[in-house]
Design goal:
By secondary structure, the chain is an alpha+beta fold. Helices cover 26% and strands 27% of the residues. It contains two helices and six strands. The protein has a six-stranded antiparallel beta sheet with strand order 1-2-3-4-5-6, covered by helices on one side. Helix 1 packs across helix 2. The longest helix is centred in the N-terminal third of the chain and has 29 residues. The radius of gyration is 21 Å and the shape is globular. The mean pLDDT is 88.
Length: 159
C-alpha cells in the first residue's frame, strides 16, 4: 500500500483535467489550411515514390500547378491508370482543400472537399463528400487523416 502524500511534500498534487475550450481565429484556420495542404502534397510525393518502389511496373508523377495546386498521376507499364488534382481553396471556402479525380479537372470541379471544423480543443478536417465513400463526415480528420483520405481516393481504382 502506498503511503499518503503529506501536504508539506515538495511535489504538489494537481488535477490532470485542465484543458479549457479554445477559440480559433480566421488567421489560425488559414495557417492550418496552408500547413495541411503542404503536408498533403508531401504525403502524396512520398506515397508515389513508395508505390513505385514496391510495385514493379508502376510509376507516379507529382507536378505543382501553382503554389496552391498540384496534380498526381499513376502509370502502370507507361499507361495512365489514375490521377487527381488537389488545390487549396475553391468554391466552398478559401481554407478548404478540393480533390478532383482527374489531373485535368477544372477549378470548379471536385469529387471531395475537405473543410475545417473545430472541436473544443483543436482544428480538424471534415470530408464533405465522405458519406458517399462510406466515411462518417461528422468525424474530424487530422492532417495525416486528411492526406490518407485523399490518397485513398486516388489509389482506390488500382486496388
Amino acid at each position: 500500500m502506498q503511503a499518503p502524500v503529506r501536504p508539506d511534500s515538495p511535489v504538489a498534487s494537481r488535477s490532470s483535467n485542465l484543458a479549457l475550450p479554445s477559440e480559433f481565429s480566421d488567421e489560425a484556420k488559414h495557417a492550418f489550411a496552408e500547413l495541411t495542404f503542404d503536408y498533403v502534397k508531401e504525403y502524396f510525393r512520398g506515397s508515389l515514390e513508395e508505390l513505385q518502389r514496391r510495385n514493379p511496373g508502376y510509376s507516379g508523377k507529382l507536378r505543382d500547378k501553382t503554389a496552391v495546386a498540384f496534380t498526381a498521376v499513376v502509370f502502370k507499364n507507361g499507361q495512365r491508370v489514375a490521377g487527381c488534382y488537389i488545390r487549396l481553396g475553391g468554391m466552398m471556402s478559401s481554407n478548404g482543400i478540393a480533390y478532383s479525380g482527374n489531373e485535368n479537372s477544372s477549378d470548379n470541379s471536385y469529387n471531395e472537399i475537405l473543410d475545417i471544423q473545430t472541436d473544443k480543443h483543436s482544428l480538424l478536417w471534415r470530408a464533405q463528400m465522405g458519406s458517399f465513400s462510406g466515411r462518417d463526415p461528422a468525424k474530424g480528420l487530422s492532417q495525416e487523416g486528411a492526406a490518407e483520405h485523399l490518397w485513398s481516393m486516388l489509389i482506390a481504382p488500382l486496388q
